[in-house]
Amino acid sequence: MGRARRSRSSPRAVRRSRSRERKAKAKKHKKRRRSSSSRTRRRSPSVQELDAAALEEQRRQKELEEKMIEDEVARRYALELQRTLEQRMASSEFQEMVNEKVEEERRRLEEIMLKEVDETKRKILQEIERKEKEKHEKEEAEKELRKQEAEVKEFQKRKELEVQAKLDEERLKELERRQEEKRLKREEEAAKDAQKAAETSRLLNTKGQRQSVGFKLKPSIL
């Protein structure tokens, strides 16, 4: 019954196929008869051999018809599927469904895009904040370095002033020591001079007294 339905579904194609098969069968049969007669002229085919060849030919014919029927059914199924699809695509329900899908996809893509924009913005702000922090830390480090350099310079200057003051103090002390030595030397020389003058004066006084005593004694002797 299934084969009958398939044959009714494509009678024109089946007729053409059968006509082609008959012609092919006749040609093959002629060729087979010629080749068999040329090979075995002395022996003619038996009834059993002819029946087997006919059965084989019928089997091939049947397979060919089934193949053609299957091809026709597949072609009609594809056409019907295409027609149904076109009708569905032309319907308002399908258009509404497509529009909904497009809108959903648009919203989905827009949401993804907004998330990507927010993520990019967040990364940019983080980068700006990081650079600002690095800049601030660099400025603070440079400020601290300048402060340390200033402190070092001030310390060095203070040390230099202390060294200079110490040198000045030592020079002043040396100068005072020399002046003191000179003063002491002058005082010593003055003391010596005074002592010499006193000694001279004493000697002179002693000599004068002796002379006055001598003058006084002479008249008394007379």
From TrEMBL:
Q: Where is this region: Disordered?
A: 1-67, 129-155, 178-222
Q: What residue range is the signal peptide?
A: none
- Tell me the domain of life: Eukaryota
Regions of biased composition (Polar residues) lie at: 202-212
Sequence ranges of Basic residues compositional bias: 1-44
UniProt biased composition (Basic and acidic residues)? 56-67, 178-196
Q: Name one Pfam family in it.
A: ARGLU
Checking PANTHER family in the record gives: ARGININE AND GLUTAMATE-RICH PROTEIN 1
The molecule here is called Arginine and glutamate-rich protein 1
